[in-house]
Amino acid sequence: MRLPLIETERLYLRELIIADKKELMKVLSNPESIKFYPNSFSEEKVENWIQWNIENYKKYKHGLWAVILKEGDMFIGDCGITMQDIDGETVPEIGFHIILEYCNRGYATEAALACKEYAFKVLNYPKIFSYTRIRNIPSQKVAKKIGLQFYKYFEKNGEKQIAQVVSKD
């Protein structure tokens, strides 16, 4: 088992491994969970997603991590920091995907807040961003709860997006 990188009151985050594919598919392959993405993920795409994050760990010292509920040691999704293009600017961005049955319990907010602190205290990023499709109100609310504020609107993949940001200080 991988060691936790980040620990909160109810959760711990650790590096994703290929063996997480079946559990991660519960969120990334669920059309309701992934409704703000162009399509739900195939098994191959989930495996590629995990591999992309493993490469990010090596290249950036971060990526999306497995979110594990301490009670019962349950895999409930992913959350972390990836480098994303926001309107032509490559920036560290907090993202998350929580399995539907664990949504609306504060886990995304708890994990995202811990990732924000990690970005500032461990990775020394001066700012952290979040972006979503304009229709993804739940994710925008999580970003706001952890202190991010409106940054700008922009287009990505032919769709209007909203970017939010918070500075270290």
In short:
This protein is of the alpha+beta class and 169 residues long.
Percent range for β-strand residues:
35-45%
Under the CATH scheme, the architecture is 3-Layer(aba) Sandwich
Gap between N and C termini, in Å?
35 Å
Low-confidence stretches: none
How many β strands by DSSP?
A: 8
Task: Describe, in plain words, how this protein is organized in 3D.
The chain is of the alpha+beta class and 169 residues long. It has one domain: 3-Layer(aba) Sandwich (Aminopeptidase). The protein has four helices and eight strands; from the N terminus they run E-E-H-H-E-E-E-H-E-H-E-E. The strands form two sheets. It has a five-stranded antiparallel β-sheet with strand order 1-2-3-4-5, sandwiched between helices. Strands 6-8-7 form a three-stranded antiparallel β-sheet. Helix 1 crosses helix 2 (43-60). The longest helix is centred in the first third of the chain and has 18 residues, at 43-60. It starts with 5 loop residues before the first strand and ends with a strand. 33% of the residues are buried. The mean pLDDT is 94.
Keywords:
Aminopeptidase; globular; 30% helix; 4 helices; single chain; 5-stranded antiparallel β-sheet; alpha+beta; 169 residues
